[in-house]
Amino acid sequence: FNACSFAGPRREPDGGQAAWWMVDLGAQRRLFCNYFTIRRDASNHFPSHVGLQGSPNEHNWMTLWRCSEEASSFNNSLGVAGQFASFALDTRASQMPFRFFRLILFQGAETAEDSELKVPQAALRICLSNIEFYGTLEIQ
User: Fold this and answer.
1) What is the pLDDT along the chain (140 residues), one digit of tens a residue?
2) What pTM value is reported for the model?
3) What does the DSSP assignment read for 13-82?
């Protein structure tokens, strides 16, 4: 169990900032992911506005799953340090193979300052202890 491990913020090509954890399965591997598991770390910066994206080439990303503060199952599952939860992808998303996956922070209502798009640095962190992907692995 990692007590504190975070990613972000990063400068994006469009000039904006983003925070994300990325996993590269390698040049010869693609995963048909049907669900994933994340484990919360012990920090106070675990975000609610996150999503899972997949890419065949690290440049074109497709959102496979997205959650926001209103999703009570997400918040209840990961409300305490060290808790983990699994989330299923819809059928369409699980039928496409990807080499790259990233858990990304979407701009959400993390603080009152967001209304002017001035997101504090702490809100641009994705803190987690572990991420796992499940599905069918294709080796080329």
Assistant:
1) 556 666 767 777 777 777 888 999 999 999 999 999 988 888 776 666 788 999 999 999 999 998 855 455 566 677 788 888 898 998 999 999 999 999 988 765 444 344 444 445 556 777 788 899 999 999 99
2) 0.80
3) TTS-EE-EEEEE--TTEEEEEEEEEEE--SSS---SSEEEEEESSSSS-EEEEE--TT-HHHHHHTSSTT
